[in-house]
Design brief:
Blueprint: H1 5-12, E1 16-21, H2 24-27, H3 47-50, H4 53-58, H5 60-75, H6 81-95, E2 99-104, H7 110-113, E3 119-121, E4 124-131, E5 137-138, E6 158-162, H8 171-183, E7 186-190, H9 201-208, E8 212-216, E9 229-231, H10 235-247
Parallel strand pairs: 1-2, 1-7, 2-3, 7-8, 8-9
Antiparallel strand pairs: 4-5, 4-6
Helix pairs in contact: 1-10, 6-10, 8-9
This protein binds ligand BJW.
């Protein structure tokens, strides 16, 4: 893939870069995306139908078990070349005195495992839990005989501390993301279908503030038509090439 020369130049002199990632960046680590057909035990369920408070209210054990299965799957995987290239991008940009913000919709901790520092988690994290009834974060918990485990304060069920459909995003994280999108010169949208709001509004905000918007995805998305550069392909292949082209 040829990286556009103008994009290389802009990145070399950039003072602020924001990156939004979605499930596609973890696909090459072996984490299924949301729109992938599920396999095995979970083949008959739509992930987007399990990721709701209504599903948890209806069948807390089913939803808890799905997250438990995902936690166990993800615990076995490693960051891939795409995650690692973003870590290198952060280091290079910080060295040239630029601001770098990695906004992720993923809950898998793979960016942190790849040692990227400035990670903003928009949709929470699979490894944290909270009380379903009272939203209380729970620091220590273990799987016992009762599923889901119980809140030590109120006895109600615990749930993963992720953001389900119909729920508000953590305000600190979302405000941080809005600020990064409004202030950056280059905004990357990587491995996301760009359909889930309000995350999908971030590149639109960056465009309003005249950032150069770059999409990295093997498929077309609703963002494609307005992106300045479309790098069609897998993040784990394109990102290392891009970082090498810009910083050697
Ligand atoms: C590769 C690749 C490779 C593959 N390399 N790429 C406005 C209009 C319409 C609806 C709404 C609206 N505003 C809000 C809504 C409702 C709703 C929504 O957006 N619905 C849409 C479906 C239309 N949004 C919400 O409900 C949000 N809350 C909200 O707005 O609250 C308002 C409120 C305010 C105040 C009080 C109360 C409420 C919350 C959204 C939460 C989303 N949660 C999930 C689950 C998280 C936990 C978990 O992991 O289980 O987040 S759903 C799921 O979708 C998950 C993801 O983070 C998110 C995005 O998915 P993503 O990452 O884009 O993955 P995929 O699978 O869709 O796409 C993968 C992409 O990768 C594809 O494009 C591939 O081509 C690509 N790819 N291989 C590069 N190798």
């Amino acid at each position: 893939m040829t990286i556009p020369a103008r994009l290389v130049e802009v990145l070399r002199s950039a003072k602020a870069v924001a990156v939004l990632t979605g499930a596609g960046i973890s696909a090459e680590s072996g984490v299924p995306t949301f729109r992938d057909a599920q396999t095995g035990l979970w083949a008959k369920y739509q992930p987007t139908e399990l990721a709701t408070p209504e599903a948890f209210r209806r069948d807390p054990q089913l939803v808890w078990d799905w997250y438990d299965w995902r936690r166990k799957t993800i615990a076995k995987v490693r960051p891939n070349a795409g995650h690692l290239a973003l870590t290198r991008m952060e280091r290079q940009l910080t060295t040239q005195g630029a601001q770098f913000t990695l906004i992720t919709q993923n809950v898998d901790s793979l960016h942190q495992l790849a040692a990227t520092h400035n990670v903003v988690e928009l949709h929470g994290n699979l490894y944290r839990v909270k009380c379903f009834a009272e939203d209380r974060p729970i620091e220590f918990w273990e799987a016992g005989e009762v599923t889901p485990p119980r809140c030590p304060e109120c006895g109600g069920p615990l749930r993963p501390a992720v953001v389900w459909f119909g729920e508000a995003l953590p305000s600190d994280a979302f405000n941080h993301a809005l600020q990064a999108a409004a202030q950056c010169e280059v905004f990357f949208s990587i491995g996301t279908s760009s359909i889930v709001e309000p995350a999908a509004s971030l590149p639109r905000l960056a465009l309003e503030y005249e950032a150069v918007v770059v999409e990295i995805n093997p498929e077309e998305t609703p963002l494609t038509a307005s992106a300045a550069y479309i790098l069609r392909g897998r993040a784990g292949e394109i990102l290392p090439e891009l970082v090498k082209e810009v910083w050697g």
